[in-house]
Amino acid sequence: MAGFLRRLLGGKKRTSEDERPALSRRGEYSLEQLSRPLFANDPSSPDDDHLVKRALSLMQSRRWEEARTIVQNGLHTCNRKDRLCEVLANIYLNENNPAAMGWYMQSCVLGSPSCAAYLKVSYAARALGLDDIAWRFLNACDVIDVGMKRNSNIERDIADHVRSSERSQLVAAIRNCEREMDGYLPLPDEIPHDQHEREVFLLQNITGDPEMPPLKQMLRLIKRR
User: Fold this and answer.
1) pLDDT by residue (tens digit) across 212-221?
2) Would the pLDDT of 148 be above 90?
3) How remote is the C-alpha of 162 from its chain's centroid?
4) Residue 188 vs residues 36, 41, 137, 144, 178: alpha-carbon distances, Å
């Protein structure tokens, strides 16, 4: 899947640096700022590979602060940033830091081809009672990876995280994130909610026709067209 997405994405950057806030040396941003693109991102670049692997290794050893430092430095030096944003979100989620959901949103608005960030935003939206938005992000997750498995432990962790966050700020940020991505996210009912019908829908395009679902929805999301 990763190689397929890389060929589809090509080398085009997702956003312009123009009129973006300067990247904070300490990585401190509000949820509202994190719900819209902060900087340029090139999902086809492999220049973050070593840093992502190093950070994940440190996280497995519970060396969270070292992992955070590596990721934050990478945000200043790498052309590809969506994966770094997702790793940083995972670190913050472990610490129950309110910024966690913001960094998942940042990964999404930068055009991440990772289904995991969309799934976690969906879980947060569901926990906040934002059902239509939850379906849009879940639909995005599933068109990116039709084999994506749900994770009840992570869903509970995010629900707990949401309960301990400032609700009004998080609701506003998720709504803003949806607006930023409105032309690219699948609609709430664009994919069937019934699990069996959903599986059929997601597996129907065996020819790989880019004008047919679910590839059509995935390309609209990832290539921003």
Assistant:
1) 999 999 999 9
2) no
3) 17
4) 21, 27, 8, 16, 11
pLDDT for the residue numbered 3: 47
Cβ atoms of residues 130 and 172 within 8 Å = no
The total number of residues written for the chain in this structure: 225
The Cα–Cα gap between 4 and 18 comes to 30
**Six-digit token string for 21:** 């806030």
Whether 221 contacts 185, CB under 8 Å: yes
Q: Which two tokens stand for residue 109?
A: 């608005």
The residues near 83 (Cβ < 8 Å, ≥ 6 apart) are 48, 52, 107, 112, 114
Report the distance separating Cα 95 and Cα 149, nearest Å.
24
Q: What is the mean pLDDT of the chain?
A: 89
Region 78-93: mean pLDDT is 97
Please count the CA atoms within 13 angstroms of the CA of 174 that sit on its side-chain side.
Answer: 30
Work out the number of other CB atoms within 10 angstroms of the CB of residue 112: 26
| CA–CA distance, 181 with 109 (Å, rounded to integer) | 7
